[in-house]
Design brief:
Elements lengths: L2 H5 L5 E2 L21 E6 L5 E8 L2 E6 L7 H10 L2 E4 L2 H19 L11 H13 L15
Parallel strand pairs: 1-4, 2-5
Antiparallel strand pairs: 2-3, 3-4
Length: 145
């Protein structure tokens, strides 16, 4: 599932610039004046994300690797938004897919990473590290050897 599908919105941008920045506070996004809000919680009703809508569309901040701030909760309460529930694993998968697609769209592959024997080397490496994963999707972003 995609981020927008889980939140049931038409398109959604995560405010954290990269997966590595999911631990950083995104308080400035909660200083806007949204007209809609959606709070995503997991199976234990722990917050996973807050999505806000304004004239610019939907933007979401993820709480996978940090707790929501008081500003985030107050922003949601001020709008009187809707609460959605999804498993933590499904949200993590959607967030990983979001940033993987962002990498594919913005990072040009290095030509030295596209050698003819690359697929075989990748299969060997994946098999060595994760074992037999026949039929499982693997994304090669060509981000280094």
């Amino acid at each position: 599932m995609k981020v927008a599908d889980i939140l049931e919105v038409d398109g959604c941008q995560l405010v954290e610039p990269s997966f590595a920045e999911l631990t950083i506070d995104t308080a400035p996004v909660f200083q806007t004046a949204p007209d809609e809000a959606r709070l995503l919680v997991d199976e234990d009703e722990e917050p996973l994300a807050l999505a806000l809508h304004d004239d610019g569309g939907w933007q979401a901040s993820s709480f996978l690797f940090r707790d929501p701030t008081l500003a985030a909760i107050e922003c949601f309460e001020a709008v009187g938004g809707d609460i959605y529930q999804e498993s933590r694993a499904a949200w993590l998968s959607a967030v990983r897919e979001y940033y993987s697609m962002e990498i594919l769209a913005t990072v040009a592959p290095a030509l030295e990473d596209l050698r003819p024997d690359r697929e075989g080397k990748l299969r060997d490496l994946i098999g060595e590290v994760w074992g037999n994963r026949a039929g499982t999707l693997c994304l090669d972003c060509c981000c280094g050897s």
